[in-house]
Q: What sequence folds into this?
């Protein structure tokens, strides 16, 4: 399909591509402004950025080597976290981000053997695990329904490229909260754990663990593939 703009035929973007392009513009502007720092990926500080990593990495069995896709890796902050917290474990790491500005900063700081980075909105490979911190939060002005279609597509991609499971975090709906008057706050997607836990259980026939008590208005889902039933011989 094509659309005519200024007399030139251009391929029409899918709704998903349009969202990815707006997300890219948002975060690329963020890192241009604040650099390779927590503020540069729209987090308030390093302590809470690390606390999110602690939750997500509860998915992974560190007693043996594994491969890991980090979807929305930003400037690569998970890499030094893994070096500190999983020092004795061999991890084949791939950072994926749709922002070229993020990936060039990540490469400059952290690229090395078993630490690669690519510009993409989905992983080009299947890994043992995938984690995603912060990719569902800023809806860049899209209506709830369109954003939730995007969330479903991202979950589907993570499931398809994770051999053992994936982990992802969301901002939590605050009960009895007044409608947001601040336009920046209105661009935040907030939800409840039951909705997305049930979705992952049904769509992927997966085992879902909800982590909600880590002192933030957020929650993390650990989504584990159900092992195939062993045959009874
Ligand atoms: C809130 S920042 C968090 C960065 C990093 N995970 C961290 O915690 O330091 C979200 C990042 O995800 C990237 N991102 C958002 N949606 C994405 C998608 N669908 N595919 C790849 N990257 C995405 C953004 O460009 C941004 O760098």
A:
């Amino acid at each position: 399909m094509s659309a005519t703009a200024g007399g030139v035929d251009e391929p029409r973007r899918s709704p998903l591509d349009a969202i990815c392009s707006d997300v890219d513009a948002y975060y690329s502007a963020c890192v241009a402004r604040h650099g390779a720092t927590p503020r540069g990926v729209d987090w308030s500080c390093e302590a809470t950025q690390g606390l999110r990593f602690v939750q997500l990495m509860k998915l992974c069995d560190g007693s043996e080597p594994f491969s890991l896709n980090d979807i929305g890796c930003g400037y690569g902050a998970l890499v030094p976290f893994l070096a500190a917290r999983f020092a004795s474990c061999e991890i084949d790491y791939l950072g994926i981000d749709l922002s070229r500005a993020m990936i060039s900063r990540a490469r400059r700081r952290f690229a090395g053997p078993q630490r690669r980075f690519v510009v993409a909105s989905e992983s080009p490979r299947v890994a043992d695990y995938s984690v995603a911190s912060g990719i569902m939060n800023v809806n860049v002005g899209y209506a709830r329904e369109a954003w939730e279609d995007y969330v479903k597509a991202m979950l589907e991609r993570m499931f398809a490229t994770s051999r053992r499971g994936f982990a992802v975090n969301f901002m939590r709906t605050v009960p009895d909260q007044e409608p947001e008057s601040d336009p920046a706050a209105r661009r935040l997607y907030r939800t409840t754990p039951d909705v997305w836990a049930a979705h992952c259980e049904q769509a992927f026939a997966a085992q879902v663990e909800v982590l909600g008590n880590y002192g933030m208005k957020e929650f993390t889902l650990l989504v584990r593939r159900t092992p195939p039933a062993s045959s009874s011989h």
Notes: Residues 75 and 104 are 8 Å apart (CA to CA).
